[in-house]
Amino acid sequence: MSQALLIGFHVISCIQFAFSVYYDFNFTIVPKGIIKMHGGYGGKFKFLTFWDAIIQAVFFFLCILNDIYGTNKVAPKQTPLLRRIKDYFHATFSFPLAMFVGITFWSLMFFDRELVLPKALDPYFPWWLNHLMHTMIMITTVLEMISAPRQYPKKKSGYIGLYALMISYLIWIHIIYYKSGVWVYPVMEVLSWPLRILFFISLFGFTGLLYYAGEIIDNLIWGSKKSKNHQKSMTKSK
């Protein structure tokens, strides 16, 4: 992808997620008595989807900065700090979280939408915002993987960052439950504590698999080009 198209893609993606966050925060106001999980303690920040939209907006802003001040070369001789931050952010947060939110949301929607997005919310949460926050997150993160190379961090570093984020959110939703007596997601209410723990463990395992899948996909797309660049650099150094 040419540099101009890449910058355009990053700008559009950043704007759409920043707008999603702005619109959701200011205009998707659910009246009291409609759904008990909305409103009250935590506000919009109780939802992982909202966290993810913020993360995607921040990531694509980092992409724009890297386009201007960093580099999108497959294997730069000296990797600028912006590029290292961008690559780590995508590998550790942006890709696995986007795929996690999108896949789990649409899977539960197919099974029983009342577990994630009850019909009572339709008048307050527009369909286009739903697709921006639950569909486009997957599309844009995959397009980013196809259109720009990245250098994956060491697995230990990547998994530490990812699970620090997920554990933070897990602690947060339990704080919300302790403060309000309401689970953020209705699916939590229908599970017993043993099943709830098993559910959390399964989700953590799934997130880890998504991180690993991202690295495999990146290697399938960019691995040959990276190896060619490495061979060229080795030849020049001899």
Task: Write a brief caption for the model.
The protein is mainly alpha-helical and 238 residues long. The protein has helices at 3-27, 48-69, 81-112, 127-134, 136-147, 155-180, 186-189, 193-237.
Layout of helices and strands, plus pairs?
Blueprint: H1 3-27, H2 48-69, H3 81-112, H4 127-134, H5 136-147, H6 155-180, H7 186-189, H8 193-237
Helix pairs in contact: 1-2, 1-5, 2-3, 3-5, 3-6, 3-8, 6-8
List keywords for this structure.
8 helices; transmembrane helix; mainly alpha; 238 residues; ADTRP_AIG1
- The number of helices is 8
Span between N and C termini?
A: 32 Å
Number of E-state strands: 0
Low-confidence stretches: none
| Cα gyration radius (Å) | 20 Å
Percent helix, as a range, is over 70%
**What coarse outline follows from CA principal-axis ratios?**
globular
Oligomer: single chain
Organism: Cotesia glomerata (Lepidopteran parasitic wasp)
GO cellular component, one term: membrane
Pfam family, one: Far-17a_AIG1
InterPro entries: ADTRP_AIG1 (IPR006838)
